[in-house]
Amino acid sequence: MFTCINCKRDVKEEGDIGTKNRNHCPFCLHSKHLDLNTPGDRNSSCGGDMKPVGLTFKKGRVDKYNKFVQGEVMIVHKCAKCNKIGTNRIAADDDSDALLKVFEFSKNLKIKGIKTLSKEDERELKRQILGQE
């Protein structure tokens, strides 16, 4: 359990959330700058507030039926202290309204080589986070 750096709510790190290395809040989506090189390494000494600034998709793949499968939704964070940009997998209990708010704010945002989601990605985003077809 940890306390969110932004909204101060208590956040569970384990359970049926779909990720092993949670460091973002499911309520406001802020994170604490903990990882240096790889997810879960907890080697960063920064400790700054990682603000959710966009959404992107993890790299997609072609399945065994030769059909393209879009990668999962990722949150793009920017550290308010050191300006590092990072991505985080969404978790099963992340607030869908908070995710949609970040999406509306960040459509087509240019972030250091990361393609943030655009209006054309909205249907796939809603399919993944809301189960809508």
Account of the protein in words:
Residues 2-100 form the RNHCP domain. Pfam families: RNHCP (PF12647). This is RNHCP domain-containing protein. InterPro entries: RNHCP (IPR024439). It is a single chain. This protein has 2 helices and 10 strands. A 4-stranded antiparallel β-sheet has the order 3-4-7-8. The longest helix is centred in the C-terminal third of the chain and has 11 residues, at 96-106. It is an alpha+beta fold. The chain has helices spanning 96-106, 122-130; strands at 2-3, 10-11, 31-32, 49-57, 61-62, 68-69, 73-79, 85-89, 110-111, 114-115. Strand 5 and strand 6 form a beta hairpin. It has one domain. The termini are far apart. The chain is globular, with a radius of gyration of 15 Å. The protein is 15% helix and 26% strand.
**Strand fraction band?**
25-35%
Number of helices: 2
Q: What is the structural class?
A: alpha+beta
Tell me the number of strands. 10
Taking pLDDT < 50 over at least 5 consecutive residues as the criterion, the unreliable ranges are none
Largest β-sheet summary = 4 strands, antiparallel
Oligomer: single chain
Task: Give the helices and strands as they follow along the chain.
Answer: EEEEEEEEHEEH
Domain RNHCP: 2-100
Organism: Candidatus Dojkabacteria bacterium
Protein name: RNHCP domain-containing protein
Concise overview:
With 133 residues, the chain is of the alpha+beta class. The chain contains two helices and ten strands. The strands form four sheets. A four-stranded antiparallel beta sheet has the order 3-4-7-8.
